[in-house]
Amino acid sequence: MSCRLRVLIAAILVLPALLAPPTAGADTPTPRTLYADGAEGRRLMGGEWLFRLDKEDAGLKQRFQRQAGREGWTPVQVPHAWNVGDDSPESMAGSTAWYRKDFSLPSAAAALSWAVRFESVNYRSQVWLNGRAVGSHKGAYLPFEFTLAGVKRRGTNRLVIRVDSRRRPTDFPPSGLTVVGGPTGGWWNYGGLIREVYLRRIDRLDFAQVRVTPNLPCATCNATVKVKARLRNVSGRGVTARVTGRFGARRFSLGTVSLGPGGVTARETSIRVRSPRLWSPTAPNLYPVSLSASAGGRKLAGYKLKSGVRSVKISQDGLLLLNGRRVNLRGVGLHEDSKEQGFAVDNALREKLVDDAKELGASMIRTHYPMHPYTHELADRKGLLIWSEIPVYAVKTRYLAKRTVRAQAARELAKNIETFANHPSVMIWSIANELSSRPGPVQSYYIKRAAAQAKRLDPTRPVGLAVAGYPSAGCQPEYAPLDVVGINEYFGWYPGANGSLFDRKGLSPFLDQVRACYPKKAVIVTEFGAEANREGPVEEKGTYAYQREYVNFNLATFATKPWLSGALYWALNEFRVRPGWDGGNPRPNPPIHQKGLTAYGTFARKPAFADAQASFRATDQLGGGVAPVARRSASGG
After folding, report:
1. CATH superfamily of 205-307
2. Burial class (CB in 10 A: 0-12, 13-18, 19+), 475
3. Domain boundaries along the sequence of the chain
4. Percent of the chain with pLDDT over 90
């Protein structure tokens, strides 16, 4: 056979592969987002993903990141939590798994850079593009991005993510064992890509960060709004662009920026807003904000968000003020959890939770981790304040003493503030939940450093901490750096190792003790609640009647404390906690946490919902009058 003939035959054999359609499941991500605020150019990576559980953790050795075939992979939709419905201890402890997505770029993608954005992966992740490592990340509930070097302009790209949900005692939240050897945790450890993934287009210049900060000296004053943008040049050549924007109907300019390859710069300006329409839960007025960077008549980058003008301060006598008026908030904790989806919930579920909270009469919501951006947007639009907490949850002293643990907490606190500071609904930055009720040098060091960090990054909001409310804890000077002390109290429900909580008569004097300990700090009851899953007599714990009476007693007690800045019931909805959970209920239904006012899966309202609703609606939460004392800023000691 001649050489020419052999070449011709080889070409014929290769031709079908060259002309073959993209791998099944490959698509072009659509220019759609599940929330509005943020950089332009985001494309939702929906459609079919492939998933592979890796319980033996053999995927790296077997090079799953380079596998070509589909054998062993299952089609799924992302967001996705792989252990929904598995109530076993092994499910709670976590595992490893892999996700794979084939995609192509839009046809007009030449000369553009691209990044992949993950809204939340639980917990550790490694990312590959076309078989090459892109980056790794640790921590859930906050977004992260990687620039995609080597992305194919034409043809099919393959994105692969290894997810490791196995928690360690040094993680947030930490792992651990109960007294009977089961896994601990305050909510279920759902592994996976639990929030959506985006492909993001970048045309040379990128808005790396945008901060819009209103300053309202008094409720009837004109406002000043500071707009600060950090821009970076992601291209390999210099770029000069003009940066402009709008706040409501007002136009502004951030001037002209000139950046070399990889260069970064920050620009800011201030805008005077006369007679601003203030944001509050009763009148959630929002101003549209947009920024644009253009060169040669072409728009390179854009950023949009909604802003609200309002002030949050603490009075000299420890009252929380919104727009200069004392508040007496009522609200609920919640979890973005569903029976069918786990933490990989959709926007319909988020809307349901927010609507239920509003119908209850709540003015504040809280959970133990940063909520989805769409939940923040709903809170902005519908008028709900947010106690925004990072998942530094019941971290033991010996682990909090580690520098690496505190460094991870600092990263999460900074990212939370960077991500959500533009939302007027965010009222308080919380640095932890239930550290030791008798803080020593380790907790003192953490509280001091974390509070200072939060105030440095955002001096316009108070900093808080939720603590376990034990009568014998006494006054803690370690809380001096805080603006707000949150009290998790379960008087009349749990017996407490550090002082009996079983007798509910201790609640009122305990609250008075807290006030005496911290007379210049705002105090919010951040948790109170009782499990309920059945009919029965009022004196029997776990019955609907007991829960009703418990709710009414606590709310009536709070009403006698005019200095209290708020009280949040734990929780609005039932959710999965951990294997063996009883929550103080003599007839529990593990792993379901049943203190919720609505039932797991159905969201049916328990009788106590109506009791809480009546009390919440009868409370003057936002009309407490202008404080008669001199006011200080949120960071004012």
Report:
1. Immunoglobulins (2.60.40.10)
2. exposed
3. 21-200, 205-307, 328-367+436-451+462-621
4. 88
